Amino acid sequence: MIGDRTVITGIGVVSPLGVGRGAVWEGLREGQLGVSRMADLDALPEAYRYAGRVGDFRAEDIIGSMDAST
Q1: How many domains are contained in the chain?
Q2: Is 1 part of a structural domain of the chain?
Q3: pTM of the model
Q4: Helix or strand or coil: residue 35?
Q5: Is 9 a domain residue?
Q6: For residue 20, which of 58, 49, 48 has the smallest C-alpha distance?
Q7: For the chain, how big is the Rg over CA atoms in Å?
Q8: pLDDT averaged per 10 residues, the chain (length 70)
Q9: Domain containing 48: what range?
Q10: Is the separation of the CB atoms in 16 and 53 below 8 Å?
Q11: Is the CB of residue 40 less than 8 Å from the CB of residue 2?
């Protein structure tokens, strides 16, 4: 709609390397991989057993518990 505005107030990253710009940058500098073989995907063909998981991300920590459910 005309008149709606968006304001970008910062940058954030949520990835298998970590949460936040610093964690992701450190992971990249150290040459970490964001994907690994997942044991719980053994029923799938080998090519599909690799995935990247975001382990330490909690939306509530960033946007609050009220907004995270919508």
Answers
A1: 1
A2: yes
A3: 0.59
A4: coil
A5: yes
A6: 58
A7: 17
A8: 71 86 91 90 90 82 63
A9: 1-60
A10: yes
A11: no
